[in-house]
Amino acid sequence: MRLLAPAIALALSALTWIAQPALAQFDEDFGRGLIATMRGTDGSQCVRLDPTISFVWGKTAPDPRISDGKFSARWDGLLLSRTPGEYTIHAHVCGKARVILEGEIVLDVDTAKPQWVSGKPLSMKFDWHPFQVDFAKTQPDAELRLFWSGPDFPLEPIPAEYFYHDIDNTIEQPFERGHELIAGFRCVACHTMQGEVAALPAPSLANLDGNISEPWLRDWLGSHIQENASDSLRRMPHFDLSQDDVEAVTEYLLSESKPRPKEKSLPPKGSAASGQNLVLTLGCTACHKLGDLGTAEVMGGPELTKIAEKRPQGYFQTWLKDPAKLNPAHRMPVYDLNAKERDDISQFLATLSPANAKARTPIRAFDERKAKRGREVVAANRCNACHQMPGEAKFAPGQAVPPLGPGNLWRDACLDQPVAATGQPGYQLSEADRDAIKTYIRQRSRATHQADAKADAAWILTKNNCLSCHPRGVGIGLSEVAKQVSDAHGNLTSLLPAMVPPSLNSVGDKLHDDALLAAIRRSEPTHRPWLKVRMPKFNLSQEEQAALVDYFVAQDRIPANAPDMVKVPHTDGLAATVAGARLVTTDGFGCTSCHQVGQMVPPKAPLNAKGPDLSMLGKRIREPWFYRWVHDPARIVPRMEMPSVKLPVQGVLDNNIDTQLAAVWHVLNTPDFTPPKPDPVRIVRQNGLRRAASRPVVLTDVMKFGLKQTLIKPLLVGLPNRNNVLYDLESAALTQWWVGDVARQRSEGKTWHWEPGGRGLLKETSTGPEIMLKDSNGKLLKPVRDGQFFTRFQEIDYEGDRLAWTHELKFGETDPVTIELQQMLSPEWTDQDQPVNSFRRVLTFANIPAGVQLGLQLPRQTVTGPLQLDASIMETFRFAAGDVRIDVDKSPGVSVDQQGVVWLSGDTAATLSLTFHLDLPGEILQPPAQQVPVRQSEAVPLDIIPGWSATRLPITTEMMPIAMDWQPSGALIAASLKGRLWKLTDTDGDGLEDTYQQFGDEYAAPYGLKAHAKYVDVANKYALLRLWDEDGDGQIERVTTLADGWGHTDDYHDWVVGLPQDEEGNYYLAVPCQQDDRSMEAAKLRGTVLKLIPDSSNPANQTFRIEELTAGHRFPMGIARNKAGELFVTDNQGNWNPFNELNHVVPGLRYGFINKVDRAPGFAPVETPPSIAIPHPWTRSVNGICFLETPAQERDRLGYDLYGPWEGDLIGCEYDTRRLVRMSIEKVGDVIQGAVYPLTLDPPKDAEKGLLGPVSCAVAPDGDVYIGNIRDAGWGGGNNVGAFTRMRPNSVHLPVGIDEVTLTPNGFQIRFTAQIDGALGGLASNYTVASYTRESTPAYGGDDKQRRLETVSSVQLSPDRLVATITLESPMREGFVYEIFLDDEVAGQGQTLWPKEAHYTVRKTLAP
Q1: Distances in whole angstroms, Cα of residue 759 to Cα of each of 248, 740, 1227, 1263, 1304
Q2: Number of structural domains, the chain?
Q3: Where is the composition biased (Basic and acidic residues) (predicted)?
Q4: 1106-1156 pLDDT, tens per residue?
């Protein structure tokens, strides 16, 4: 931390008053904004900090301190460029302007009218570049707005987060503080001041009786004797009143107040707890302080901590509904609250007082003599200058007070202590605030302005505290206060994304003028009804409203005919309507995943991902802004969760992204447009043909029936005769039966699920277990849950066209009885092998205790009516309803009752057989159903990594590969996000897999697999399964459960990820977190890394026990183990995770995320920071990982390590930005830490030439690296497609670039892949290093903290020019990320480096 010189005082002479750079104490090297120096032609001057340069001054002065007329201005500072490449500065200017960047004039112009001017392009690296702008007003109107375009973005206003100045040159700004104090204290109510607007209204005192506590009023008036009299919240001055005067003023104010309304004796209404939540989430804390929460600024509202000591309970209800009834001069904006909300808030506010200090408003007789004296005291102290007074008395003008101006040789006067002898009030201000007021008065009074100057919009925002709520530019608005609220009130943590209002970044470019005006007026319905925070209605004049519109437009809007803009395509007609209707759904960009469109509402979108209704958005939103936004939302609102839309949907409008977005705009602005329900992602069906290869289909992922019923652990069996049977493994009951297609898979919002492929034939099926037990004493027992579910699922067996599954049921809480149940389903056929709408269900029970009866509750209702026992049928027990019937075999020990319960008596084993039949002809689909839609990808060579070859495999894009492994035969087994497993083979010997066959049925997000010779182990949502293919024909014969027990729901994110295996046969799983409301059982083991330990070495009868290794993981979407036995998982940024992460798994440790069920007072576990904190939004998410370790057989063949200098590093898959990253790790003491680097080049503009969306990776037995790519409609503008990419280094000798960064005691050692330039590589100016940290908060992502530009004091090259050791001037900081950027010159003149940046996480420093 630097120790800087004290601030330089402002000189008072006319010649030298201008502020000199004042030094302050900062942790950062840079201050935000540019230092602006302005001069008027009459000698008026000012120095200030400007966050941006975007001004349309017109005829007005650029600052209150500058006189009207011509002026000149200079801005000095630094411009940050993050992405190396070519940048162009553009200006929309009227006047004379010059821009100097890196000492070079890039723009020099003098215009007579506003027009666009573009500077010459300049190549820039990552750095803070010296930046200077000069402007002179040469025309009646003046304007200067700066824009830029860069290597990875089109023209945009230069955002505030890219402007800085050297902290050593920063300035204090007492003028701005003085302005706020002058206004907040209403100085011009008594004093005159040149150019100052009228004083803000003070609270009316005309309605105090019954609305203010009499004891509190006395204390307030006599507050000069209190210890806290200098409280900065107080905007009324202190008066040195005697106790008699206090009593007299109190008597006057209450006695002449308007009569209080007759009090109604009603019981209190409302919930104080609900009211507290409303106060904490509505946005009240942006203006009010409540205990340790909220803000206490001079332009804000009064503190609420003890408000019930001041106000009676009846006051709050009226105040919240219509504050003007109580205070016609109020400044508080009005919230649109319903009656219950007002009741709740009133009830809560009424609790805010110390014990026995409730407001007291007694009804009593008043003393007229005291009241008369009180009027005199009020008049003498000029109270009426600020306040509306009660009664009819007219106050004569008091003694004249001097004007406020530079000619006054006044002392501190009312800024300090009150003086009773002269009646002078005192604000008891700090010395800094007194100086700020003096500075404002002196500097403001030196400039001359027209009397009819326009309303100052920036001041309107300040005085109404707008930017204390809304984020804008580098201002964070309510974010920090909302975080404090959620920290203090854990029950509100999950609501944090709804507690901060929308950013105002680019709002003037976003909205049409009339829409902007309507938003300011609050004259339209809310567009984000899910937000807890709300914008109240402000009492703004029409002039103020218009000024705000003009301000935002001038600041934000890109004028027409701008160069280098995102091209706005135009399309209409039938093609746009048809294509656009599909593109907004999950068949296209997935807009409906987060946004409502027409009547289509997104299902269960998380709070941080919800978006406003897009219907007819063109009425509010400007079309040019729409295209800017969808191309890259995070450039407008940093850390915005909405993905960028840069990839076209294949097969639509010539695969042109711009035309597709134009079609989206077209349909969204079509009246009464509601998107069609998107096509199913897939339809699973049987064709009804009886063949030797006919076999059942099994689905086990989430099933939904309409809007009401969801099964999270279904077992859906599609029989070859097109009869489909749904058994619910959660409730242990047959749930439904239908004829037709098996199921349709849908992606809605951010969820995937199946829906029935036909109309169900059963109604009112059991909501609980269908099996019951009657013990030897006649006591009826029903199954009890074994953890989250009633069943413990064991095995599936495929037997030709039949299917059997086995599970356990447990009866009784004490001394439980566990019975094993196998169920067999068989299709029925005619003698001619034609399908019959019928199936056999055989239940075989084992481990039945002696003397026990088992009961099966049959369905009671069907679509054709209630099932009734038909006593006329003698061969079976028949239950029939029209065309539907169930026949129960009359076997020994089988009986039925009138309630439809089939009873079975037996010994330790017994069997029950039933036939379900629909009396309608079976159906056959001709031709046979196509199992895989043809949407083939061609083999495409990709140029994505220098020194590597890469090819997209010629495999259907229907697969969305999320896990991969190879059998010993060399066959690639891949799992798709859609649920299936596939076997991929190379048939022509070119090394590229080109054919595929289905290997497994439909599983639940199989994010991990391990392939063996005769079986494949698969990790999916609910269990680790073993899929047996013992005969090697590519078809599964048996599925067994190896391990289960972690909780899960229908939440899309409830995956488990795997599946590394160690030498002892143990498996490792990463289980994402729990953030929603659910049972403890459903939250079990969420957010953990698990070790699965086999209980046997024989694969045929193995099960695995679970051992929890670590906890505190958010979304660990990648897990990998290296040859040294070290296990790592990734984690994705979000709430509690300010970075994406690579975490070293050490048993017993806990990382940074907290499950919702654990968020309780007192729960504060020790957290382990990540080994590598991967910057966000440099990466949006890091998912699958794998180690670049040469397989043993390939090393034996080659005789060397395939990956050369990168051997042992990790690859990470970055889905959103379509890139791969590389990570290197090193051990410092007992801590593992390291660096992350870009691996692939930035995605090319031609989407076909880049990666689709990496999410998984694996190393093949021959050393080839395979990348699984997807585009998921719920997360990133894609229509649920996928691709495989195969990559391989061309040589161990890579092009020159960073190989590895390791730590030294005072800097870093950078190893290169090839020799660097001996001279240029040793220049410190070619190395840029910065460091920063972030804090874990409940908010998404996080701001950089304590950012510092490091000084590279020296660079030492090794003799072989493969290593550069850089020494930093400042000590190394633990817990910080160091960004290291190298110039291409390091490689040599005219050469390039790749990679040329690294991000190193220093968890532990090295001793010198």
Answers
A1: 83, 8, 61, 50, 69
A2: 9
A3: 257-266
A4: 999 999 999 999 999 999 999 999 999 988 899 999 999 999 999 999 998
